[in-house]
Structure formats: C-alpha cells, structure tokens
C-alpha cells in the first residue's frame, strides 16, 4: 500500500529523497527485495539474414 504522498503523485523514483529514503519499500511504491522478479537469461539471437 502506498502511503507516501510523493509516491502517490509521481512515484518513488522521482522523489528528491529516493536515494536516502529508508521507507520506500514499506510506505512507497518500490517492491520489496523478495517480491522483485527474477531476471531471466537473454534470449538467443536469431540466425539468418540481417535486414537493413
């Protein structure tokens, strides 16, 4: 739940105190580390002709 008024209006990342805010995961809109999606491996490149 977003409680921070800045996070409600523009989001946590646009807040001037984002880098030092200790409550961005509990009051703001940032996901908690265990809720963050796992990064997937890059898809293999397609083989074939290159389009110009």
> How many strand segments?
0
Distance between the termini: 47 Å
Q: Sketch the major β-sheet.
A: none
Mean pLDDT reading: 75
Strand-pairing-aware structural class: little secondary structure
Number of helices: 1
Task: Give the SSE string.
Answer: H
Backbone CA Rg:
18 Å
Shape: elongated
Short description:
By secondary structure, the chain is largely without helices or strands. The protein has one helix spanning 5-9. It is elongated.
Write a concise keyword list for the protein shown above:
little secondary structure, 52 residues
Any chance you could write out the topology, listing elements then pairs?
Layout: H1 5-9
Please give a structural write-up.
This protein is mostly loops and 52 residues long. The protein is 10% helix and 0% strand. The protein has one helix spanning 5-9. The longest helix is centred in the first third of the chain and has 5 residues, at 5-9. The mean pLDDT is 75.
């Amino acid at each position: 739940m977003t409680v921070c008024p800045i996070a409600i209006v523009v989001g946590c990342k646009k807040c001037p105190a984002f880098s030092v805010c200790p409550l961005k995961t509990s009051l703001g809109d940032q996901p908690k580390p265990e809720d963050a999606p796992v990064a997937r491996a890059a898809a293999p490149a397609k083989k074939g002709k290159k389009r110009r």
